[in-house]
Amino acid sequence: MNLLERPGCGPFQCRRLGTSGRHSLTKGEIIRRPAILLLLLPLCALASVSGETLPSEQDYLAEMPIVLSVSRLPQPLDETPGAVTVIDRKMIRESGARDVADLLRLVPGFQISNSWEDDAPLAVYHGGFGSFSSRIQVLIDGRSVYSSYFLGSAARGLQTVALEDIDHIEVLRGSNSAAYGARAFLGVINIVTRAPIETRGVHLSKTVGENGVDDTMVRLGWGSDKANFRLSASRRGDDGLSGVNGHQHTETFNTGLEGPYGVNHVNLVNFRADLSPNTRDTVQLRAGTSEQYSGTGNPFSVGNPMRGVRYGSNYLQADWKRILGPDSDLAASYSHTDETYTDHFPYALPPPFYGTVVDFGGSASNDALMLQHTFRSGRDVRIVWGGELRREAVRSMALYDQPLLTTDFIRLFGNLEWRIRPSLVLNAGAMEEKDSLSGTDLAPRVMLNWHVVPGQTLRLGASRAQRPPSMFEDEANVRYVALNTLLKETYVALGNLRPETLVSREIGYLGEMPALHLTADVRVFHEDIGDLILPQNYPLPPGLTLIPQKTVIGFVNTQNFSDHGLEYELKFKPWQDTQLLFNQTLMRIDSGDPVTAMSAPTHAFTLALFQKLPDDFDLSLIHNASGSMTWERGGNILQPVSRTDLRLAKRFRLGVTRGELAVVEQNLGSPYNDFNNHFFFTRCLFTTVSLQL
Length: 693
Known about the structure:
The protein is mainly beta. It has one domain: Maltoporin, Chain A, CATH 2.40.170. The chain has ten helices and 38 strands. The chain has a 22-stranded antiparallel beta barrel. A five-stranded mixed beta sheet has the order 3-8-9-6-7. A three-stranded antiparallel beta sheet has the order 13-37-36, with no helix packed on it. The two termini are 44 Å apart. Pfam families: Plug, TonB_dep_Rec_b-barrel.
């Protein structure tokens, strides 16, 4: 961690500015790449129609998922108060992705980065507005996994579950503070893991390939009628990105980080137990640990040298649910999470300060207790309501110049689903949230779903949300001290911050067209964001620090702006064994600040083909393209991105053992900038063998 060198960068990493256009792509190249998928369609037709039947209308309509994460009520997609993308287990496996962040390329409106340089591979919706993913909520089986230590970022949490353990992912595209509070300012990613009863036996998988890719997964499942258990352990590793001060050493790029500082490793152990002591009660117990190691730094920097940093987290979670009646249940949940961060390095100073070690390590903890009641009031009304108590604690003298900071949260929430008539469903909900730093906020939402005809639904609604300042934004005091002497200050909070505000309006359409084997999900949105919190330099009195400096960084409410646009996704199943996905986002951020205006690309799309071939072969081809954008306040504007991934897999049996051999090549085209102009995502070929015993 380096908070010394460059103003305007994230507080965990600073680098020199730079530009590079040598690997930029022309608009023509971006448009031509999807032609590969279209040329494969005749082959897919031949592979599919031989001995196969077209999907029936009943099969097609039966595929509509039931989701839980939008209103806290189980609802089909055409009755949720918002647009939802569901990534199922089949799509997860066939995507060729190695982590959750990479999977979110399949969701319209999302931008992803594979960089470990500032935080961890992250995903943001409608703009990052900085180096950390702090405006979107990530849940794993209902447990919030944002980092109290890393400025509320959800990126580290995305790395704490293995893809093989995931059943599906629900992504609400739009604010959901009415159900999950301020962290869900711009959206929610809900990761649902597989039930242990579905994962009995032994599962083994191994992945090896270019760029140091080396992944291992071992899972054991066992149980009985009333108790089922799963224990999984995995290790994922690679050599990271290439670039000027990226990780991988190649002849193409002048790389700085090599050897032990040029690798990324994620080690996971997760346990889950599902217990059914009687017909009314269910209990779920979860525990796990995560260790994330990455290289960072710059070989040409004195204050930010090459080094390895380590992030660790441990959690416990207990969920209980009791059925009170045919349409009523009571649920309670408790979770505890610990975080640790290790980052220290020698800082080159003259005597008497020679040998000074800068230590940006620290720890954090998070405790949450939730109670929720769901019931039906009459034939046409369902209600869910409840409350949550949460305490966050951070211990870091390096970041706050005090040993302990705590924030307490009290949340009350509720949602009413009223079926006004068979074709008209109203959802109205709100959350009142009080925290010890910023006071009380109210986040309401109302949404009307109209089933115009069976399979055709229009959605109209609005919501309001607030995001109070994070602990770092409100309390930061980053000081370099040696021999009781203040050497340098980089971040000093100004305080008196107002919460960020959001007013969102949307019109949506969800169409199921069995005759055309097509599903369409369209969202037209307008979002007004106020009092955006951003870092800003301000003068520092002369002579305050031993190392001369004129400014220090604080956080201020900077601007009001709006974004608006259109996003849609199409799922087309022309034949039984063929699925085509296409999504596109067209948006504009209207801001007087050019960096904010470039926080999301004005256009982006994904085109994917999933094809089952004869003789138990599977083919997947995914193409992504997006326009220019910037992740950081430092002004690194990325060139347009174009990426194509190919996967070919063969399923097989060896007696009672089921297996799969898959070959994946990521980024068939030229290297592209990832996160900033220093780093490049290059072509990578790897092979995976998996066995189910």
